[in-house]
Structure formats: C-alpha cells, structure tokens
Amino acid sequence: MLQITDNNGIFQLSGNLVAGSTSDLKNHINHLLDRKENVIISLDKIESIDINGVNVLKKLYKKAISNNVLFYVIGRENKKIAKYINSTMLQFIVRRDNL
After folding, report:
1. Are 29 and 17 in contact (CB under 8 A)?
2. What superfamily would CATH give domain 2-95?
3. How confident is the prediction for the chain on average, in pLDDT?
4. Pairwise CA distance, residues 41 & 13, whole Å
5. Are 75 and 46 in contact (CB under 8 A)?
6. Domain boundaries, the chain
7. Contact at 8 Å (CB) between 19 and 52?
8. Whole-angstrom Cα distance, residue 86 to residue 99?
9. Could you tell me where the DSSP H helices lie in the chain?
C-alpha cells in the first residue's frame, strides 16, 4: 500500500511504490503538476520500488519539464531502494536531499 502525505509542501511517500500502487501516485502528482510551480516528492519512507514505480517517476519528471514545473524527488539515501534507483538510471532524477 502506498500513502501520500503533504508534509509542509513535500509529498512524503510511504509504503511500496510497486505495480498496483502507482496509479494513485500518478493521478495525485499529475493533478499537482497542472496547478503548482514546484513539486517535491520524498522517497525516504518507501519500503520497496519496482520497475512500475520507476517508470511512473520518470513519466512525472518528463511531464514536469514539459509544464515548466520544478520537480524534485528526494530520498536517494534510502538504503531500501538505493540499489534499485542506481541500477535504473533514476539516480539522475532522485536527489540526495532528505527531510
């Protein structure tokens, strides 16, 4: 299960970012990308991620660029997902910052 919590403008993801949970994230963030000038997502509390989660983050990043929205994904230091991030080229999107 994936939870999305607004933590003072940083959207904290908790749980698993895997097939079956990515549509909620995609819908929520797409809505924000149409209305905000910047969007920050934190992966600090993600327990696991799969290729579906990676692909959604990449698509959201591309949409943010096309909408001229500043889009940050933080939480690269999360050891539970770091290996997957580094092996899928997400390291170019996910920043080292954390909450």
Report:
1. no
2. STAS domain (3.30.750.24)
3. 89
4. 7
5. yes
6. 2-95
7. yes
8. 20
9. 22-33, 51-66, 82-87
- Hey, what amino acid is at 99? L
Taking only Cα atoms into account, the Rg of the chain, rounded to an integer number of angstroms, comes to 12
Per-residue pLDDT tens digits for 15-56: 999 999 999 999 999 999 999 999 999 999 999 999 999 899
Q: How many angstroms separate the CA atoms of 98 and 78, rounded?
A: 9
CA atoms within 13 A on the CB side of 72: 17
Q: What would the two tokens of residue 6 be?
A: 């607004």
Q: What is the largest CA-CA distance in the chain?
A: 33
**Distance (Å, whole) CA 77 – CA 95:** 9
How many helices and strands (H and E) does the chain possess?
A: 3, 5
